[in-house]
Amino acid sequence: MPAKRRDQREQEVATSERLLDTAERLFAEFGFDGVGMRALADEAGVNLGATTYHYGSKEKLYVETFMRRFRPTNAARLEMLQRAEKLAEGRPLAVETIVECMLRPPFMTVLKYPNFPGLLARNLFMPPAFLRAELEKEQGMALQIFAVALAKALPQLDPQILQLRLIFGGGSLLMVAGQMTRLGLRESPTHCEATLGALIQFISAGLRAESPTIPGLELPKFTAPRSRRH
Amino acid sequence: MPAKRRDQREQEVATSERLLDTAERLFAEFGFDGVGMRALADEAGVNLGATTYHYGSKEKLYVETFMRRFRPTNAARLEMLQRAEKLAEGRPLAVETIVECMLRPPFMTVLKYPNFPGLLARNLFMPPAFLRAELEKEQGMALQIFAVALAKALPQLDPQILQLRLIFGGGSLLMVAGQMTRLGLRESPTHCEATLGALIQFISAGLRAESPTIPGLELPKFTAPRSRRH
DNA sequence: GTCTATAACCTGATAGAC
DNA sequence: GTCTATCAGGTTATAGAC
């Protein structure tokens, strides 16, 4: 019985959990198209047939793998912003404070779950088509809320430019996330905190930059990109 | 003869070129693992066997697809910086000038080749393992040169922080690249130019930010990440 | 809930005719 | 240079026993 060779301790965890954990690790490293359900089931010590029973399809498993981490992280960003706004009692928040609310929760999740950076990078940068809907629903509103908060902190800034700069800042965050293991950030929380601080500084300064309203700039009607044929 | 159904005009282009062009389009959209050699050969109107003859393997074709655009773009960045430094006659360059030298060539390539953003995003963000060596060789030196130029323009800035901020800025560029089609940037060069301007502003401001030397920050020994089992 | 077996198909690479 | 045919192995998903 080659499928039973995993040790007892791993068997104590429910198979659906083990599968999800393994999926997190492998999907983060190799991407959706880079891992097969076979490799996944084998690595998790789970039968191939059981994967279908628990998650229905590879795509559903992939979505759940990402959302399990992304949902609470995103919720934490909004909570942190609400706490900060409550604490400020009507006074406008500093740009740095708002930016920290956006960035700290993802960094905390990263410290807790080593594979989260890979998930973030792969799914927010060029997300698979079947993830788009769920993703947009989850993060679209959050982005809107932060844009409003920042517009209050930077009343003289063109909203179009602000939206563009939020995208720039998102890129910086994702780059750090993607390179986190490579940067050796996993080792110490201290280093992680230092990087977070540097990132907050960088983005805040970029958001505050003087902007001679750029002529001819019009921001988009977003259009859905494709991702893979299935 | 189902393989001959493509029209005459396309046959005038050499098959190896057609294959490379098609690879550029499909790899940019779906990634290395997202496209099969069959789909690729079919779409290009090229026989499957011919692909091996011309490029040897899928990986080699992928590398060539990316490098064909990336090499000259990267070279253009260095040339632009050299021209600027020559023009300055020893006077230190403005941060904005250096940043523009880094960003404008990629934007120009994007205007010329619609699929370049996808290539950039996919290959610089979480590059496949087999591309790493070529990539590091090509861009490593360039990054070093720009770091030196920026260190001269920002003499009071901690080199560690500078290196980190270069990564942040790179993320912003890649994010824009990845979302370029989605942002509707393809339509007008004006819009493209405006976005480039906004990005230069953002990154320059971030680079200039006051940095109270962050304690405990040490930058890495880079370690090679894996990408896919083959 | 977990397993085996299998269907239907796709993968990259290659050998050898033309 | 271009074609066909094929190899050995991979893919997701499913049906049905236990």
Give an overview of the whole structure.
The structure is a homodimer of 230-residue chains. Chain A has 230 residues and is an all-alpha fold. Chain A folds into two domains: 1-56, Arc Repressor Mutant, subunit A; 66-230, Orthogonal Bundle (Tetracycline Repressor, domain 2), CATH 1.10.357.10. Helices cover 70% and strands 0% of the residues of chain A. Chain A contains ten helices and no strands. In chain A, helix 2 (15-30) crosses helix 7 (116-125). Chain A is elongated. The two termini of chain A are 34 Å apart. Chains A and B meet through helix 7, helix 9 and helix 10 of A and helix 7, helix 9 and helix 10 of B. The structure holds a DNA duplex (18 and 18 nucleotides).
Sequence-ordered SSE layout with sheet pairings:
2 copies of one chain form a homodimer.
Chain A (H helix, E strand, L loop, with lengths): L7 H4 L3 H16 L6 H8 L3 H8 L2 H31 L6 H18 L3 H10 L3 H25 L5 H20 L10 H20 L22
Helix pairs in contact in A: 2-3, 2-5, 2-7, 5-6, 5-8, 6-10, 7-9, 8-9, 9-10
The first copy, chain A, binds a DNA duplex (18 and 18 nucleotides) through helix 4.
